[in-house]
TrEMBL record:
Upper taxonomic lineage: Eukaryota, Metazoa, Chordata, Craniata, Vertebrata
Species whose genome carries this gene: Ilyodon furcidens (goldbreast splitfin)
Disordered, as annotated region: 1-45
Cross-referenced Pfam families: bZIP_1 (PF00170)
Biased composition annotated in UniProt, kind: Polar residues: 19-30
Coiled coil found in the keyword field: yes
Coiled-coil blocks: 68-102
Protein name in the entry: BZIP domain-containing protein
Domain BZIP per the UniProt entry, residue ranges: 50-101
Keywords: Coiled coil
Gene3D superfamilies, sorted: 1.20.5.170
The UniProt record lists the keyword Coiled coil: yes
DNA sequence: TCGCATGGACGTCATTCGCC
DNA sequence: GGCGAATGACGTCCATGCGA
């Protein structure tokens, strides 16, 4: 466990990640292209596009968190099930051994 | 003590899936 | 078909452990 949930919770983006994402994503250029806003004309469509993008990123960020939480829970459940089944298997093997033993003594 | 390997968590993008 | 939610893939950061 390196980074606790509390440290990076609730929209506090790690500085490195922020820089990273800005480096990788030529967002403003793409938005300009998408919104049809060039060097001239109203800034409104661009603002709308930026706002829409920010909202989408925020929602996706939260969705990703929830997705990871569910995945971890799922894995935990599977691990528990494995433990239970292994125990059952041991018990059944012991039972079988005991029954074989009883049978053997009766035959003799 | 330093450099490296590893693992966990994160954000973003691309894709898939289900609903309208 | 379009749209939003869910998820896989990827790159990054950070903490920790370990050997030189």
């Amino acid at each position: 466990m390196a980074v606790t949930g509390d440290e990076t919770e609730a929209g506090s983006v790690a500085a490195g990640d922020l820089a990273n994402s800005q480096m990788r994503n030529p967002t403003s250029n793409r938005l300009k292209a998408e919104s049809g806003v060039g060097s001239l004309g109203s800034q409104k469509p661009l603002e709308d596009a930026l706002q829409k993008r920010a909202l989408r990123l925020m929602k996706n960020r939260e969705a990703a968190r929830e997705c990871r939480r569910k995945k971890k829970e799922y894995v935990r459940c599977l691990e528990n099930r494995v433990a239970v089944l292994e125990q059952q298997n041991k018990t059944l093997i012991d039972e079988l051994r005991a029954l074989k033993d009883i049978y053997q003594h009766k035959v003799e």
